[in-house]
Here is the input.
Amino acid sequence: MSKVNTPAVPLQDQIISAISWTLNLAPYQLTPYTHFTEDLHLDQIDLTLLIAAVESQLDVYLSTEEVADIKTVADLNRYFSKYSVNSTSSSVVSE
Here is the structure.
């Protein structure tokens, strides 16, 4: 069976889909301004696990310092777009 060529899904939509699936939330509940601790009530461990799940799904990995800076969906999108642009294989960022 051959693959069907479909337009690429924007990275922000992929991130929102991954967060939505991981947290069992409807995607419409997530915006770029959604704050993980204030709006979604995630503690640091939950946020770290969420970021790890998104990293795994997108095959892009962030440094510990970058993970510590993530507070909103937009922050997550900014870091993932930094490493996923023009990338055909997995990106690993050294610490």
In short: The longest strand covers residues 60-61. The radius of gyration is 14 Å.
